[in-house]
Amino acid sequence: MKLNVVRDTGSYSVFRKMKVLLDGNLIGEIARNETLSFDIPGGLHSVSAKIDWVETNRISFDFDSGDKAVKIISNFSVKQEMKPRLSWNPFKTLANAVEDTVNMSKGKTSSGQNVIEIVDVTPQN
User: Fold this and answer.
1) How far is residue 67's CA from residue 84's CA, in Å, rounded to a whole number?
2) At residue 80, does pLDDT exceed 70?
3) In whole angstroms, what is the distance from residue 20 CA to residue 41 CA?
């Protein structure tokens, strides 16, 4: 069976590759705007992606039922993250910086959304 992985053109870690994991084990690395295909043995497997400490959600598939396709999506936008900073207040800016650092260490944007996620894009028959 095949697993097709597409990585979007989002702005999170644009110059670095993300690790593609099958059942928590590295099967390859994918660059921004790249598509890769992996041969996967039949059975139930989980798929995720990771960069540094930030990991996507995990999706489980039964590969006995055919080929699967996933897309790695970046929810991080430099423009969006900087928008609240346009009105400068030193105390609020420091509080925002601390909050953003905590969020990013948890793999979250300033709005609390996952920085990267993986979604099933397998064509339905």
Assistant:
1) 43
2) no
3) 16
Query: Do residues 3 and 22 lie in contact, with contact meaning Cβ atoms separated by under 8 Å?
Result: yes
- Three-state SS at 34: coil
The dihedrals phi and psi of 100, each to the nearest 5 degrees, come to -65, -40
What tens digit of pLDDT does each residue of 7-47 get? Answer: 987 777 788 899 999 999 999 999 999 999 999 999 999 99
Return all residues near 54 (Cβ < 8 A) that are at least 6 apart: 107, 115, 116
Q: What is the DSSP string of 38-65?
A: EE--SSEEEEEEEETTEE---EEEEGGG
Rounded Cα–Cα distance for residues 20 and 55 (Å): 10
pTM over 0.85: no
Radius of gyration of the chain (CA): 17
Closest among 67, 74, 77 to 121, alpha carbons compared? 67
Q: How many CB atoms lie within 10 A of CB 35?
A: 11
